Amino acid sequence: MQLADIISALVPKDGASRRVARGLSYGAGPRRKLDLYRPRHQSDAPLPIIVFFYGGAWNSGSRTHYGFAARALAAMGYLVVVPDYRLVPEIEYPAFLEDCAAAVGWVSDNAASYGGDPVRLVLAGHSAGAYNAACLALDPRWLAPAQRAAVVGVIGLSGPYDFYPFDGPISQRVFGQADDPRQTQPIHHVGPDAAPKLLITGGRDDLVLPRNSVNLSAALERAGVHSSLRLYPRLGHAGTLLCLSLPLRWMAPVLEDCRAFLADVTNPGTGPGDPSAGEYRAAAARQ
């Protein structure tokens, strides 16, 4: 049982949000399903959408383990989608990215039926899921042009973005057979048209080193793309995710970082309850 599974099962849930759909199919097979979460309060206006990809070294994980994270984000006024995707060794790279892209395609086609706004889309994830989110947003191979244009921001928690040459058994197993290994790295797909990024990492992360977030943030800034980097010295690899849970939010203001960024990129200049709304888009415009 993963730590995220224990947290999801035991911690109190955000009462301001709820799961509204479970196990919807976005493709064939048991691993191509997703859950939807939204605020409890009803809104006549379409909600911005967050697609959250979980981590697990591309070889483990389940959408059912991450209800605590989805509810925390949905409670702030968003339709949150948590998809499963096929895992190694059942598949090889890039099949898990193809699944994640298919989930985003389903969201583009169907989220309006659940009160979502498919042209205000944020991709988010933790660890391997942050890699998936960054790849979909940066590398034009995965999303259709209209879907990629709808991505207004990316949130990465403890993500690997710059880890070639592969120096560990996980990366070698997952990516070692790629025809061009450099092209597996999100950092090599940074361009001036990229959406703003919020990159959060922990100083005690010895699984995905903080330099991944630091390097990607620097590459984005060099390309004229606004990037906000948060490095919390006392957090480890899982800490950036667990800070979203109700009992562990005292560890670091990760949820507040997400709140400000999300309000800014989905409602530039008019973010709900955020006096600094417009910071990310305004900074990008000044580049």
TrEMBL record:
Signal peptide feature range: none
Gene Ontology molecular functions: hydrolase activity
Alphabetized UniProt keyword annotations: Hydrolase
Stretches assigned to the BD-FAE-like domain: 34-220
Annotated region (Disordered), positions in chain: 266-287
InterPro entries from the UniProt entry: AB_hydrolase_fold (IPR029058), BD-FAE-like_dom (IPR049492), GDXG_lipolytic_enzyme (IPR050300)
Superkingdom classification of source: Bacteria
Record-linked PANTHER family: AB HYDROLASE SUPERFAMILY PROTEIN C4A8.06C, CARBOXYLESTERASE
Protein name listed in UniProt: Alpha/beta hydrolase fold domain-containing protein
Species: Devosia marina
